[in-house]
Amino acid sequence: MGMGIKLEQKHLFGILYVCLAASILADVLVKFHGQAEAQAHTAFLWQTIPGFSAIYGFVGCVLIIVVSKSLGHLWLQREEDYYEKH
Amino acid sequence: MIEWVHPGLIFILGALLIPVLKGRWKKIYLLLLPIAALIDLLYMSTSRGVFWRIPLLGYELVFGRVDQLSLVFGYVFTIAAFCMTLYALHVKEDGQHVSAFLYVGSTLGVVFAGDLFTLYLFWEVMAFSSLFLIWYRKTKASSEAGFRYIMVHIFGGICLLAGIILHVQNTGSIAFNSFNWGTGWGYLPSYLIFLGFLINAAVPPLHAWLADAYPEATITGAVFLTAFTTKSAIYVLIRGFSGVEILIWLGAIMAVYGVIYAVLENDIRRLLAYHIISQVGYMVCGVGIGTWMAIDGSIAHAFCHILYKALLFMGAGVVIEMTGRSKFTELGGLYKYKYMPLTFWLYMIGAFSISGFPLFNGFVSKTMVVEALAMAELPIVWLQLEGASIGTFLHTGLKVPYLTWFGRRDKDKEPVVESKTEVVKEPPKNMQQWVLPHFCAYLSVCIRKPFTGYSPTCGL
Question: H helices of B137-267, where?
Answer without folding.
Answer: 140-171, 188-201, 208-213, 219-241, 246-263
